[in-house]
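Hello forum,

I keep getting stuck at the same step: I have a sequence, I want structure tokens, and every attempt I make locally crashes halfway through. Rather than fight my setup again tonight, could one of you with a working pipeline run this one for me? It's a single chain of 211 residues.
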Amino acid sequence: MRIPLRFPDGYTAAADVFTFDGLVDGKEHLLLALGEWQGALPTGDAGPVSGAASAPPAPLVRLHSECLTGDVFGSERCDCGPQLREAVERIAAEGGFLLYLRQEGRGIGLYAKLDAYALQDAGLDTYAANVALGRGEDERDYTAAAQMLSAVAAERIRLLSNNPDKAEQLGALGIEVVDRVATSVHLSGFNRKYLESKRDHTAHTIDLSAA
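Reply #2:
Ran it on my machine without issues. Output:
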């Protein structure tokens, strides 16, 4: 199914949207195929070029965890909405896939995420707030994402992410991450501590020095 997309700043794109049966977690995740995505997939017939083997193509892929507050309502407490907007444009330009994963609040759910916000207002960082609620720092599991990528023959990818855990999990699940491509830094007046926590606590590749 092809769906035309339009963002609040006027940017438009078209996505071929895939749904799935039998995902391991039973959730309704989506895969949006953007740009010339068919041409970004390996064909298996890459031959020698100037005496050297030509590397097969690898689509640009973003695993984007659902964030109702950021993606829909434009909350500035995180960088999720701007990352989603950036990912669609970059993937559409190069050909690849955006996986929209139903893992709100790093897997703890919407209401718990809002409870964690209250704890952050009291001084905890985003990870400590989750733990204070009796949850994991990050409960996301990317097994379903690996299943989705395998279903569209994207088992060799370039991953658009600042999060090393995504690459590590995908690699362990049989998806070859040939390159990690950093997203831009989306700093607002409300999310600096949040971004610093991701950089310092979980080694996200976020450079705030120039932001």
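The two ends are 38 Å apart (CA to CA). If your local run keeps crashing, start a new thread with the error log.
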